Each structure stands twice: as structure tokens, then as C-alpha cells.
UniProtKB/TrEMBL annotation:
Keyword Transmembrane helix attributed: yes
Designated name of the protein: Energy-converting hydrogenase Eha subunit A
Keywords: Membrane, Transmembrane, Transmembrane helix
Transmembrane segments: 12-37, 43-61, 73-94
The organism of origin for this protein: Catenuloplanes atrovinosus
């Protein structure tokens, strides 16, 4: 009896661990885009979800039977709730805000360098940042946006679309901004005049 209980606990823990890995990939989304090529960031995210879904399906298929004791059903219910909760949450906000907080000083440095005339990001693809600040942009560059704003592209893959950190200062955000031929909107204010911009084609849930 005790062995069966611990077996259920172990399988539920396996499901929870698989979905915890998904959370780690989601929360670290901006970091993931820095480590792998931009075109592969979506594959990493997709692989995490696929693995978690397969693990969950295998556990449910292995445990489900008409005569299973109630504790088994309860364990499966816990696993299902964990999976549903992870899928329901918009993790982009946590990833974006977390990255900004960790690198807040570097974002401030970009503004200072631009204000001092050290950057003239007026070309279509912008200008390369100083080496120590290039990690803030997927392209290692900063572009002009909205006349006087600054854009640091952070994502270039689906399903999140092209998005990035934009410094707009004290000016009220415009309805949309033209970025690399696409229309963007501000989604979140991050503080200090910085915002997260996202393609208007991507639904906003918050």
C-alpha cells in the first residue's frame, strides 16, 4: 500500500517538475533569446511545452483505471491543475520585468550614453551599442523610435512576435509605433521611462 502511494507521489512530482521546467523557460525567456540564436528561442520554448505535455499524458495514461483508489485520482487532479495553471499564466510579463530589474543599471547607461551624444541610432537598424551593453538587445544595437525614443529589440520570433524595450522618457506613450516595418504598442511600463513594446498583431491579455 505504502509503495503504491509513494509511486503516485513520484509520478505527480515528475509532472510538476516537467511543468516547472516550462516556467523556468518562460520566466527566463529574454535570457534564452540571448543564449541561443533568435530563430531557435521559439524551438526551446516549444520543446519545453512538448516535453511537459508528453510527460503529463504518459502519467495520466499509466495511472488512469476504473478501479484505481481515490488517492490516485487525487494525484492526477493535482497534476492536471499544475499543468492548467502554467498554461493559463502569461509569463512574458514576469520575464520582461525580471530582466529589466536585473539589468536596470545597464538600461540607465544606454540612456546616459545616448543623451551624451555617444549614440546616433538614426539608421533603419540603429547603431551598435557599446560592447558592455550589447546584451540588452538581440541585435546588439539600439534604434530610434517615435522621434526621440530608443528601442532595444529583445525578441524576433513567434509566438510573441518582435518585441523590445523602449525608452520613451516622460512623454506619454503614443498609440502605436513603427518598428522595422511593423506596428507596435506599449504593453507594460517598466519604470524610469522604459516600456515593453510588442507587435500589435499579438493579442494583449493584460
Amino acid at each position: 500500500m505504502g509503495g503504491r502511494v509513494w509511486g503516485v507521489v513520484a509520478r505527480v512530482a515528475l509532472v510538476c517538475a516537467a511543468w516547472a521546467a516550462v516556467v523556468a523557460v518562460e520566466v527566463g525567456g529574454v535570457w534564452v533569446a540571448r543564449v541561443v540564436m533568435a530563430s531557435e528561442a521559439g524551438l526551446v520554448r516549444g520543446a519545453a511545452y512538448l516535453t511537459a505535455a508528453i510527460v503529463t499524458a504518459m502519467v495520466v495514461a499509466g495511472e488512469w483505471a476504473p478501479r484505481r483508489p481515490k488517492r490516485t485520482v487525487a494525484g492526477l487532479a493535482v497534476a492536471a491543475v499544475v499543468a492548467a495553471a502554467v498554461v493559463a499564466v502569461d509569463w512574458t510579463a514576469a520575464s520582461v520585468r525580471g530582466y529589466y530589474r536585473v539589468h536596470r543599471a545597464d538600461f540607465a547607461a544606454v540612456v546616459a550614453v545616448a543623451a551624451g551624444g555617444g549614440l546616433i541610432p538614426d539608421s533603419y537598424y540603429g547603431e551598435l551599442l557599446p560592447p558592455e551593453l550589447r546584451h540588452l538587445s538581440i541585435k546588439g544595437s539600439v534604434a530610434r523610435i517615435g522621434g526621440s525614443g530608443l528601442l532595444l529589440p529583445a525578441r524576433t520570433t513567434t509566438p510573441d512576435g518582435v518585441g523590445g524595450f523602449a525608452f520613451l522618457g516622460d512623454a506619454p506613450p503614443a498609440g502605436t509605433y513603427d518598428c522595422y516595418g511593423s506596428q507596435f504598442r506599449t504593453r507594460w511600463s517598466l519604470g524610469d521611462g522604459w516600456y515593453w513594446l510588442q507587435d500589435t498583431m499579438i493579442p494583449s491579455t493584460t
